[in-house]
Amino acid sequence: MTDQSTTETGMTPDAASERVDRGMAALSHEDWATALINFRSVDDALRFASEPSTRIQWARALGGLGMVQLMDAKALRAEMADVDEQSARDFRWELKKALAYFDRALAIQTDATHRTEVEGYKAYALVLLDRKDTAVDLIRRLIAGDGGRALERQVADIRRITIPEDAVVQGVLHDLWTEANP
After folding, report:
1. So what's the pLDDT on residue 3?
2. Which pLDDT belongs to residue 150?
3. Cβ(9)–Cβ(50) under 8 Å?
């Protein structure tokens, strides 16, 4: 049974879950501002929470913040006509910020379903950062663990904001899917 009492932070696990769900719904409609507001409110309220049910929601919010950051990085890259050294650094910096959110979420997330989702987004960011070896290991585990269902979201996310580097991500996913399902 989940403890639904108000936490030391003033937000119940149910209220946090509702906020994160609103943020996720906003992400699916590409309403980044609404998603950001919801995720940040949970992050601000639950940052120092100790109850496991509350920490699950905090980790979900961190994963959502990572996803918003990842989409921001892709939007930045999509606006670049020519990629010079500075703009490439800017793109990589934005991706690293997304990766930091994913790593924080994974450090505290205990729910397997939510961990899998964040691991998929982390793998996506790693490929965009040209850290394919690390991403390949993670993607293989995801395919082995749930038959690739976690990666379906990443494929859908590739299509949200299209950048040239998505072709590399699609190629890695295709190769690993083919490897696992000959």
Report:
1. 43
2. 66
3. no
